[in-house]
Specification:
single chain; alpha/beta; Rossmann fold; eight-stranded mixed beta sheet; 6 helices; 8 strands
């Protein structure tokens, strides 16, 4: 029996939980372990307006922890990810093969970056920006997962997020993702998708999600 084309895939079970018509444009910055999984899963649930920023190439250590495949090593991450997403979902993502450097942002923003300085750069463009409806910021280190969902124009969200946005020197884990494991990556990517779909559907946010291994931190 011939395989189905991506456009013919039956998404009815997922659509009963999340209506893709509620999705908003997403800009995802950082296509490493968490970013590549989150981007792929967003495409899988029908998020069709998706731009991904990353300047790096796929390295051998990326393959076991992400969506990338061995034959994609040394290719640009955004190109490799776009190929995987198109193959499975039939969707075309916007590829931005460079490091984010403070360009204007709009829509729903997902930060999957390694350093606090990169988060601060994104935050400068997001903070009190009426064109950005939500920022989802992922932080992982070994088995630790932390995901923030922040409304950029909400004073309480701003205050809480800025209390937890140190510089690289003062951060407990200044460079996230040096050591990680795929199931922690998957938890973070799942939280990204859940935060976005819940916000788009109900207008509610879970400001902070944190987990160590499989034990949630309250």
């Amino acid at each position: 029996m011939p395989s189905s084309e991506p456009s013919d895939l039956n998404r009815s079970q997922q659509d009963a939980i999340f209506d893709p018509g509620n999705a908003r444009p997403v800009t995802l910055i950082g296509a490493g372990s968490v970013g590549s999984m989150a981007a792929g899963w967003l495409a899988d649930i029908g998020v069709s307006d998706l731009a991904v920023w990353d300047a790096d190439d796929v390295a051998s250590h990326n393959v076991p922890m992400s969506r990338y495949e061995p034959e994609q090593i040394a290719r640009k991450k955004v190109s490799a990810l776009a190929e995987l997403i198109a193959r499975k979902s039939g969707l075309t993502i916007a590829q931005v093969p460079r490091m984010y450097a403070g360009e204007p942002l709009r829509g729903s923003i997902v930060a999957c970056v390694d350093r606090m300085s990169a988060r601060q750069l994104i935050w400068k463009q997001v903070r009190k920006n009426p064109n950005v409806d939500i920022l989802v910021d992922t932080r992982i280190a070994a088995k630790y997962v932390e995901v923030w969902a922040i409304r950029p124009c909400d004073p309480d969200d701003i205050a809480e997020y800025e209390k937890n946005l140190p510089n690289d020197r003062d951060a407990l884990t200044p460079q996230c993702g040096i050591h990680g494991i795929i199931y922690s990556t998957a938890v973070a990517a799942s939280a990204v998708c859940d935060d976005l779909t819940e916000w788009w559907t109900t207008g509610t946010v879970r400001r902070r999600f944190a987990m160590l291994g499989l034990k949630q931190i309250h």
